[in-house]
Specification:
GO cellular component, one term: extracellular region
Helix content: 25-40%
InterPro entries: ADP-ribosyltransferase (IPR003540)
Low-confidence stretches: none
CATH superfamily: Toxin ADP-ribosyltransferase, Chain A, domain 1
Distance between the termini: 24 Å
Pfam families: ADPrib_exo_Tox (PF03496)
Protein name: ADP ribosyltransferase domain-containing protein
CATH topology: Toxin ADP-ribosyltransferase, Chain A, domain 1
Number of strands: 7
Organism: Aerococcus tenax
Number of domains: 1
Strand content: 15-25%
Amino acid sequence: MLREDAKEWLNKLTAEEKRAITKYTFNGKDPDGLRLFEKINGYLDGYYKPVNSKEEKTLLKYAGLIEKGLLRYNLQRDIIVYRKDFYTSALEKPIDKFLSTSISTKGVLTGKPNIAIIVPKGTNGGYVELLSQEKFKRQREFLFNTDLELEKLKEDGLYIVKRK
C-alpha cells in the first residue's frame, strides 16, 4: 500500500526534490568521513558546522528540497515504524531534523529496533523506498519531515511513542 502511495507521490515531485531525497538516503561517506544525512541533520540540530559557506549553502539547499518534497506526501493510513536509537530521551523533545525509520523491523540498519513509533494518517513524512538506491531499498524507509514532536507512551523493552 505504501509503495503504491509513493508512486503517486513521485509524480508530484520535481527532479531536484527527487535527487535531494535520493542523495539523502544514500549512505556513502564524504571525504571527511560523514554521510550527507549526518551533515544535514547535524546542521539542522545545531551540532555540525559546515566547513565553508559553499557547504552550508549546499546543506540548506538539500534540506529545503527534502522538506518541500516530503510536504507533498500524503500518508493515507495509520502505520507503525521502527528505529534503533541509543538516545531515546532525545525523542521526548521537538525534533528539528529529518528522522529515518523503517516500516519493517528487519529494515533497521543497526540491528534490532528499540523504538516503535505510531504514525497517524496525515503525518508529515514520506515513504522513500522508491527513491533509495538499489542496495538501500531493503531499509523500507519512512522519512519524517522536520519539526516532529513525539509523545512517549511506554518503555517496556520497546520504547513506544506516537506523533503528537
